[in-house]
Structure formats: C-alpha cells, structure tokens
Amino acid sequence: MNSGILLGFLVYLALLAYIGWWANRYTKTEDQYFVGGRKVHVLAATLSDKASDFSGWLMLGYPGAAFSSGLGAFWAGIGCLFGTLADYVLIGPRLRIYAGKFRAITVPDYLEARLKDDTKLIRILSALIIVIFMTAYVAAQFTAGGKTFAEGFGISDNTGIIITVIILTAYVITGGFFAVVWTDVVQAMFMLLTLIIVPFLALSEIGGFDKATAIIASADPNLLHPFGGATGMAAIVFAIGYASWIVGYLGQPHIVTRYMSVEDPRKLRRPGIFISGTWTILVLWGAFFAGFLGFAMYHAGMLQVSDPEKVIPAMAVELMPSWLAGFVIAGIISAVMSTADSQLLVASSAIARDFYHKVLGRELGKKQMVNISRLVVAAVALVGLWFAISGPKVIYQMVATAWGGLAVGFGPILVLSLWWKRTTKEGAIVGMAYGLISEVIFEAKIYGWAFNPDAPGFFGTIGGWFNGIPVFFINFFVTLIVIAIVSMFTRPPEDVVKLHEDIFKKVSIEGTGKKSITETRAKSQVENVVDFVLTKGTA
C-alpha cells in the first residue's frame, strides 16, 4: 500500500470526522436531523444538491461510459445538465414554499398534506418506493467506493466496499442532515478540483488533443462519432438512451429534499440556478474528458486499467505524486459518500418517520425518533452492503436502474401536484402504485434496464417498438398520463384547490418595479440571474 496515497486520504477523512462532530451540536430534533431546521444557506444547499446528485456515477460510471462509448456518452452529460435546470424550474421553489406551509420534513409529508390523503396509502407507497430503490442506489455507491479503494490501495473490491460502509454509516449516524450538507459542500469542491486537474494532466501526458483523437480514431473510429456510428432512428434511440437521465431528476428524494431545507425559496430561482448550472457544466466536462482521454492513454500504452469504471483513480495514481493522488482518491470517495449519505438519510426517514411514526402512529419523543432513525440507517447500510457484495458491480447500470425507479415513483406526482391544482389523491395512489409495480416487473423480471425484443410474447413486441430506450424514460410519461386521467375522473377537495391558487398568487418577485408579474416571468432565467447578481449578489 502506497503511504503517500494513504496520508492524503487520512487528512481528508479527519476533515469529515470534524464536520460530523461539529454538526452533531445542531442535531437535537427530528426537524434538524432530516432538513437542518430549514435554515440551510442557498450556497450550501445548492452544492449539497449537486454533490448528492452525481455520486460515484460521476467519478466512475460516467468516465467509464466515455471510455467505452467515446463521444456518444456526451449525451448523458446533456441530459444531466438539462435535468438539473428542470429541477430548479419545476420542482425547487414551489416544493420549498409548500414544505414551509405544511411544515413538511420529507417528500411523503408534502404529498400527504398537499393531496389531503387520510388513507395513509400515499405514505406507505412512498416508503416502499424509497426503501426498494434507495437501497439499490446505496448499494451502487458502496460498489463505487469499493472500486476506488481497490484501485488506490491495492485491496479487493469487497474489502473496499466494507471500508466504505463503515466510514459512511458512522458520520451519517453522528451528524444527520447538517453533517450531510456540509460534508457535501467539501466533497463538491473536491469533485470539482479532481475533474478539472485530471483531464489537463492527461492532455499533457498524451501530447495534446489532436494526438489523443488520432489514437482513438486508430483504435475505434466510432468512438469519435456523436451517435456511436449509428444513423437514422438508431441514432435517435442512441441519444435518448444516454440523455434519458433528464426526467429522473424530477423524482429523486435525496435531491429534492435539499430544496425543502433552503432558507429562502426565491434564491432557488436565481443564484441556485447560477451556482448549480456552473458547477454541473464544469464537472460533466471534466468527467467526460477524463474517460475519453483515459481511453487514448490506455491504447497508447501509458495507462493500465482493468475496469473502464476505474479509469480516474488509475489516472490519478499514474499521473500524480502519491500524496496528491491520495487527495484525488479522497475526491472520488467523496462523490460516493455525498450521495450515499443522503440516500441513507432518506431511506431512514421513510422507515422511521413515514412508516413507524406516521403510519403506525407510534408517538415518541423527538430525541427518541432521531435515535431510531440512526438505527435504521445502520440497518439499511447492512442491506446495501449485501447487495453491493453480491450484485453485478457495474455502477452505471446499477445507478440507472435505481434512478429510474425513483424517477417513475415520484417524478410525475411531484410535477403534477406542484403545477396542477386538480391533482387528486386517487390519481397519486394509482399512479405511484403503477410506477412501483411496473418498474419492479419490467426492470427486474422482463427487460432489464432498457427495452429489447427478447422478452416473450406481447412484451417482446413492445420491446421491439422501444428497443434500446431505457424503461424508466417511457414509464415516466405513462405514469404521468395515468395520474392525470385518474385525477380528471375524481375530484379534489375545494379547500385544497383554493390553497394551491392562493399560495402561488402570493409568490413574490423581487425587482419587478412597474412591470407586471406576467412580464417579469416572461424574462429568461439567464436574464433573471444577471439581474439578481447585479442588484443583490449571490449571497
């Protein structure tokens, strides 16, 4: 084991331990444990949102896709960027306003209050969706951590997975949401620095971008084609397959919970978009080119890598002094941790708060609820550990499957409930039940991650129509239609409709002057960002 790499990593680990200790002073109640008391600054919430979003997928899965698929993998980056913007436009501000109105701590809290569901079915379905797919998501993060430790320290993947589980579980149990948010801020900066430094070092080692593309062209010319060499309808399917991440952003509880915690919902419209969009562009650029250039280094004999998803840690060890490589390894582990900690917290809230407290009606003190939540975090981590060790260990596919289940389960109902006053609890129950059952059946039993014609009978016919398109991308829109149809045949309570109308008539718009609200909202988001920065700053 390289002592320099170990030293750099231990310095980073000590920093995380300090943050967890510091955050524990602010974690005495359930509200503080799950949403930081709704006092999180927009800068911290925004960086935490993106760090918890991109995970080991950004540092291992996406570079691995660029290594294997070349230029065509850039479509995934486009999908992620526009998905990020969609979250801030369609979900963030309205969800924060509603969450504050209802004192909602979790997404199921919001849905139950917004749709006035007294049956507890929405909360039960939410808990099932979160536990099933979030546990699978956590397992993917543990796998990513295991691969990184294996490449950096010369240990087995399974040993690395166990180390990741121990570190992660310890600081989530210790600090709750405050620890998660502020470690995410540190991790977001580590991820950014890593993904800026590594591609430039690779370019310098290869001898320039022209030489890199020449090496790639000689190895496989299709890797320089924006559609992987496909044409016509096949090219469209290729692009959709990679860009389909866009719809998933609308239904990720570990991401949208950040919006519920921010101190001022108006700042999600302007500085939130500016900070998040800038960070997202930089890291996606870096992750893509790290994998793309890593392929060139591999074929030029400059890099040895046994697994495409280990390309960044392999490049760090090859191109950097050992102590600096240790910090890069820490940056990769930080990406894994920043998502897995959020997912553990959300899964904990689904079991401890949404099911044990709300559905079963068990009344406990606030401190007792926090302690139960910590026990649940440990239990979920153990289940995730088992899946990570026994699973396929392909991070891109593992993340996509879990991402899709959460996207279909929560995305359609969140969008409709925030924007359509006629959304009903019956529509939500039927739609969420369909989303849960269909995703489990289609992805686990019939198709796998993407549609294909190999399924038997009628399902094979459907698979042929959408061959190569991710199941969750089509299923998202089917679920949206199901909720809308059921809602049109049922009737929401009048007070729910009136509340929706009243809340969003009162949304304040800063700096309108003599302009009407309609005129102000007609401005582009970019113009609003510029106006805000010039007049108020981003703080």
Automatic annotation (TrEMBL):
It is a multi-pass membrane protein. The keyword Membrane applies. One of its GO terms (molecular function) is proline:sodium symporter activity. This is Sodium/proline symporter. PROSITE patterns: NA_SOLUT_SYMP_3 (PS50283). It holds the Pfam family SSF. Belongs to the sodium:solute symporter (SSF) (TC 2.A.21) family. It catalyses: L-proline(in) + Na(+)(in) = L-proline(out) + Na(+)(out). It comes from the Archaea. Gene3D superfamilies: Sodium/glucose cotransporter (1.20.1730.10). InterPro entries: Na/Glc_symporter_sf (IPR038377), Na/Pro_symporter (IPR011851), Na/solute_symporter (IPR001734), Sodium:Solute_Symporter (IPR050277). NCBIfam families: sss. Its main location: membrane. It is found in: Cell membrane. CDD domains: SLC5sbd_PutP. GO terms for biological process: proline transport. One of its GO terms (cellular component) is plasma membrane. It comes from Thermococcus aciditolerans. The keyword Transmembrane applies. Keywords: Cell membrane, Ion transport, Membrane, Sodium, Sodium transport, Symport, Transmembrane, Transmembrane helix, Transport. The chain crosses the membrane at residues 5-23, 65-91, 121-140, 160-182, 189-209, 229-251, 272-298, 323-351, 372-389, 395-420, 427-449, 469-489.
